[in-house]
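Hey, I'm writing a tutorial for new members on how sequence and structure tokens pair up, and I'd like a real worked example in the thread rather than a made-up one. If someone can provide the structure for the chain below, I'll link this post from the tutorial.
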Amino acid sequence: MNTGTFENDMTTFATKDDILTLLVHLGYLTFHSIQGIVSIPNKEVSQEYMNAISTMDWQEVVRSVEASRDLLESLWAMDGEAVAKGIDRVHKEIAILQYNNENALSCTIHLAFYFAREYYTIVREMPGGKGFADICFLPRKLHRDKPAVVIELKWDKSAAGAIAQIKDRHYVDALKDYQGNLLLAGISYNRKTKKHTCVIERLEWGSYH
């Protein structure tokens, strides 16, 4: 696959490679950079979650689901401290990958917000503006009252800086349909403290543009 012709949007397609590149950014395909090929990815994150809960008793499963629901509600309430603590808890409970980069952090976020799939389609590396937003929550048709969410991840950098990057690079331009109902979340992990931090803002489109 040739990724060089991709126009970094979801409407301009000149070749089949442009379509395949978009599918990679949406998470439906995996790109092997050395071989230059795409393939259908396995569902390692969902499978890892299932592996984890399969060894729990029923009460542990219930607690896990409830914790994910509480985390989502904390996000809606814009309680960054509660969101950070919830992600800390998931990181300690489920070791899905060697925790040493933003990709591992992204997998932890997906696991922590497992319950969000009830309300959202979750898109990884969504194209918009001058780059790709790390994670986007797009409300399902039955839940259009819920806010869309753009999440930017940082490793050993500030969560506030992640929010600034979302704005500076105009990641939200692809989400104009959610004007007035869009949250921005910056989530960071500090290797020294082994803690996550989270900053959440509601986007005001008037001031943004």
